[in-house]
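Researcher:
Attend to token order:
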Amino acid sequence: MGTLINAAAIIVASFIGVIFKSKLHVDYTKQLKLVMGLVLLLMGIGWFISDFVVIDGNGLETQHELLILISIILGTAIGSFLKLDERFRSLVKNIETKYQLPPIAEGFITASLIFCIGAIAILGVFQDVIQGNLTLLYIKSILDFITAMILASALGIGVMFSFVSVLLYQGLIMLIAITFAPVLPVDLMTYISLVGNVLIVALAIDFLEMKSLKVLNMLPSLIIPIIYVVIL
């Protein structure tokens, strides 16, 4: 139920954002994108630090450095070898051409990454399945509503289609939670969250036009912590 509300919030907010976009000059939409990138950068760094830095008796310590490094490097190598970014953008471009759609690739990819990557989606679904608690998913829906509205006003209608990604991604997590929740280690959520927040920072850097990073090629990084836990 929480995931459906989340998807509905993205659809409604995207329509509002597209209507708002038509009233804005191109310079304003570019400025919105840069501001969104700045906010994403700060949020991603904050979320990362909250998982990465721990307090012990002697002060502050960091954790899981090697796992993060291996996950990002190996995952990006796999994604680059498979050419995930190029293949997906080509697929979306062909759909745009075939059905004479407005440009949707950037909005769809960006919104999908923002809405799906991060701890709140995973923890929210697990709380829903295990405890029947929808609080986190309600919070995520509100955040995604605001984000989708801003993104759609800057990137267009492609943002709306990210609701499909949210349904598929959070639906998959729900199936995993129902099936494996009793045997999954608690630390796995932290591992995935750490790697996911690195990808959010990478996406923010792309938004800010500081460097063009193919974040889609980095997505396999999220699978490495799962493989690590399975091996252990």
Q: What stands out?
A: Residues 2-231 form one domain. The radius of gyration is 18 Å. The chain has a mean pLDDT of 86.
